[in-house]
Amino acid sequence: MISSCVTISVVEASRGGPFVFWDDLGAACKTAHDIGFDAVEIFAPSADALQQLPLAQVLADHKLRLAAVGTGAGWVLHRLSLTSSSFDERKAAEDFIRRMIDVGATHGAATIIGSMQGSFHSPLDRQSGLGYLGESLARLSEHAASAGASLLYEPLNRYETNLVNRLEDAQRLLIDAGAENVHLLADLFHMNIEEVQIAEALTRCGSRLGHVHLADSNRRAAGMGHLDFRPIAAALAENNFCGYLSAEVFPLPTPEEAARQTMESIRTLFSKNPSH
Ligand code: LER
Ligand code: MN
Questions:
Q1: 242: part of which helix (H) or strand (E)?
Q2: Ligand 1 pocket, 154 CB below 6 A?
Q3: Which pTM was predicted?
Q4: For position 276, what pLDDT does the model report?
Q5: How many A from CA of 116 to the centre of ligand 1?
Q6: Does pLDDT of 229 surpass 90?
Q7: Residue 36 has pLDDT above 90, yes or no
Q8: Which domains does the chain have, with CATH numbers?
């Protein structure tokens, strides 16, 4: 059974980014619960910052799970990337993610690697960039497995990375690297730019698909753009997808309306009722 999820950012420097709720964790979780979400996904500045949030209490108060934690702040705030040409920077990037896996695992959450995959730039070529990325994903995969957590790898569109833009290439990278405990994160916004056929690309992921960032063509809540969600819902149903549909969208026209529209689309298009 699919679960519903909504994003919360507590990273001031990401203001304007595609996150539904901002700043006030308690208020965000209360609204998420009232609308009927099963879980939240949190974008935090670092593992230490995540650890300092009163997460366990707030999640319990509002009967929510922590589906996943994002690591994008490692790039946004610290410019850390797994494909930097500097060994020290690649190591710092891996350490940042390792710590996030550990803290996320204490709440049963998966960790997302998206922006921290970076891009290749001279003097690196594409093959070396992909090589560094694959090696890191394999090491982080083992770390996550030993922490009892799962790891999600997210291909991004061409304006955010020049490494991996499509799910099929991401799947090939994970297989070649032997990163067995890493699942794919399918962000429909990126897919709408890069994939030939969104539903087919989802079908080809099979059981490797772990998480979906649910967004419409314009990165607003599902139903506020022009994506046809029917074949997407059919592909997920055929795959027996039982991960999270997580709203990673702009808070437009307001956070609450974006969250309500998402829940309405999850109910009508993905046949999943609110949690209460
Ligand atoms: C960035 O565009 C994105 O989709 C995030 O989920 C990556 O961390
Ligand atoms: Mn995303």
A1: none
A2: yes
A3: 0.98
A4: 78
A5: 9
A6: yes
A7: yes
A8: 3-269 (3.20.20.150)
